[in-house]
Design goal:
By secondary structure, this protein is mostly helical. It is built from ten helices and four strands, in the order βαβαββαααααααα.
């Protein structure tokens, strides 16, 4: 843009996988593959929700490597450089299988229809909500209610401002191409982080007394803040570790089964510092920060709340 502001391309594939199959893709165990990268905050949301709901046995997961080129995410972590289920080298192949000449972003998370090899959706915001609402027949016993009807309006309100100012706000600062655009995004980001600090000072979770979709969406940005956004994206008024309420809140979630066990700081750093050569021309990946602080006591239990509501934690990471 002429103003130097970064604008995210949000032209996602809106097809949905639903219990009634109204878009042509009914929920079926074993039919679909969730493709993610552990580096990506948007994909990290889907990894967390899949794990919390216990969908591992019905929705397989392919993991792309932390770096990619202009063509798309690739499966360099797998033997032979191919996803073992889809048999493809690049996620791009699944997009082109359904839409020859596809000219929008090849993004993760994406869900691919295994029998046809064609992508179904990459609409990350709707995807996790549908895992909560459309895949209920296959949730594990004790799965939490991440998008309960009685809190939905408030969750949506919080998600909207957190996406604008925080989730996408760090990118608007990092990819700004003018001083004014950068400073505007920077100010909006830290104003919202201050607002979140005030909101969370006396309540353990963002909405209600248990973890919801809102917490998942905020966590994946906070988890990357000190490792990437503070330095790489110039979001440097304060580190997360210098914002007491948000740092304690983030550690609380990190230490909750289903959250910290999905985080790979090495892959996160490699992605941002290697791929974004316009920001980091040398491609040097920083050695720090020391991640051990994530496991220190957070004291948030004193605020009450139950992480999984009436449910239970996921048993093990698979």
């Amino acid at each position: 843009m002429a103003s130097g502001e970064y604008t995210r391309d949000q032209r996602y594939i809106a097809t949905r996988i639903t219990a009634d199959g109204r878009d042509g893709y009914p929920v079926e165990p074993g039919r679909y593959r969730l493709v993610v990268s552990r580096a990506c905050p948007w994909a990290n949301r889907a990894i967390i929700v899949r794990r919390l709901l216990g969908l591992e046995d019905v929705l397989s997961m392919g993991v792309a490597g932390p770096t990619h080129d202009e063509r798309s995410w690739s499966f360099g972590l797998d033997p032979g450089g191919r996803d073992p289920v889809l048999g493809i080298e690049r996620l791009q192949e699944a997009f082109l299988s359904r839409f020859p000449g596809y000219d929008k972003g090849i993004t993760v998370p994406a869900i691919v229809d295994v029998p046809s090899g064609a992508v179904v959706t990459n609409d990350f915001a709707q995807l996790t909500i549908d895992l909560s609402l459309e895949w209920t027949a296959f949730h594990r016993p004790g799965a939490p209610r991440l998008y309960p009807a009685e809190l939905r309006d408030e969750i949506d309100e919080v998600n909207a401002v957190v996406f604008r100012d925080v989730n996408n706000g760090v990118y608007r600062a990092g990819f700004a191409s003018s001083q004014d655009a950068y400073e505007k995004a920077y100010q909006q980001l830290f104003d919202r982080l201050d607002w979140l600090s005030d909101r969370l000072a006396n309540q353990r979770y963002l909405v209600g007394d248990a973890i919801t979709e809102a917490d998942v969406r905020l966590f994946t940005t906070l988890a990357r803040f000190d490792a990437v956004y503070h330095g790489h994206f110039k979001c440097n008024r304060s580190k997360l570790s210098e914002m007491p309420v948000l740092w304690a809140y983030a550690r609380d979630l990190f230490q909750t089964p289903g959250f910290g066990d999905t985080i790979d700081f090495a892959q996160i750093k490699e992605h941002y510092y290697v791929v974004h050569r316009t920001i980091n021309p040398t491609g040097i990946v920083p050695a720090g920060p020391d991640p051990s602080g994530w496991l220190t006591p957070h004291g948030r239990e004193s605020l009450g709340g139950r992480p999984f509501g009436d449910g239970t934690p996921p048993v093990s990471d698979r």
